[in-house]
Amino acid sequence: MNSTWDRMDSFQEAFIKNFILVFLGIAINYVNGTFVAIFFTNQIFYTESRYILYINMVINDMIMLSLTVAIHVATYISPLFKMPVCCVVIIIGSTTHKNTPLNLAGMAIERYIAVCNPLRHAEVCTIRRTYIALAITWGVAAVPALSDLVITLVTQPFSFFSKALLCYSFNVYNTRHHVDSVTPVLVIYLSFVWLTLVYTYFRVLFAAKAASTDPISARRARNTILLHGAQVMLCMLSYIAPWCDMFFLQLFPHHRTKILFATFVISNVLPRLLSPLIYGIRDQKLFKCMKGYYCAAERQ
What residues does 197 pair with on adjacent strands? Predict the structure, then answer.
């Protein structure tokens, strides 16, 4: 959550940026909220694990987007945050950020089982096991942020938590351990996700050539896993954003605040819309229910 450019903005520029960001936040959460409403008002989705995994991703992205927009706007009003508030914000932000690719990996595994082991799909992907898997992914996603907090509690004096500061992780977690652990943690997380996507994709690809596998179902699953790969790449935009900032700032040094804002929106905001929307429109059940939802809203 980069908010360090606000001090350099004029009132007009700050107003335009916040207006754009709040508008995008409301619009994206409205679209995603529609999918959430459709899920909870149609019992047909309660009994299929892939829809439960999907709606978990949508809710996760809504939490992350709401937090991102709120913090960005708040920094223009009062840029310094009390340390306890900042720690809570960082924990929620870090957890939701890491949870998205893990959830995508879980969705790919579910499609792999549906195609390669269709007779065992109902046995393996039960509703109970799906919720257990979601609890595990949320727990795993929260581990880095909680461990950073514990290390800070142990290594920093109590007075450290009475400070007010700009709320981003390197301001709070600035010990040598934190600096050294950031890259390995990201590598481990993303390596697991990419290995899962590659493995499930090729297993589905080979299964599609088998006579016993429905070719249409296999093709759809293969395309879905490819879509998950594209979604993970969208998630990774936030990791490469700092390098993009440095590159464009060298080319256009007089447009620093505009460049930082543009990369912030592209890497942190727009993926929260594209990822759930593309998947939701591709799915026939969700798309049919979405059309029915909006038609009913228009009649009212």
Answer: none
Residue 26, pLDDT > 70, answer: yes
Asked whether the predicted pLDDT for residue 56 surpasses 80, the reply is yes
| Amino acid letter, 221 | A
Q: What is the Rg, in whole angstroms, of the alpha carbon atoms belonging to the chain?
A: 21
Using the predicted structure, report yes or no on whether residue 6 has a pLDDT greater than 50.
Answer: no
118: which residues sit within 8 A by CB, 6+ positions away?
none
In the 8-state DSSP scheme, what is residue 43? G
CA 201 to CA 184: how far, in whole Å?
A: 25
pTM over 0.90: no
Do 14 and 178 touch, CB atoms closer than 8 A?
no
Question: If you ran DSSP here, which 8-state letter would residue 162 be given?
Answer: G
In sequence order, what are the beta bridge partners of 166?
Answer: 80
Q: Region 20-33: what's the mean pLDDT? A: 91
Closest by Cα among 190, 114, 126, 180 to 151: 180
**In the block, residue with structure tokens 């009132």:** 11
Question: Are the CB atoms for 66 and 151 separated by under 8 Å?
Answer: no
Burial readout 117-141 (b: 16 or more C-beta within 10 A, e: otherwise): eeeebeeebeeeebeebbeebbeeb
Which range (177-181, 265-269, 295-299) has the least confidence?
A: 295-299
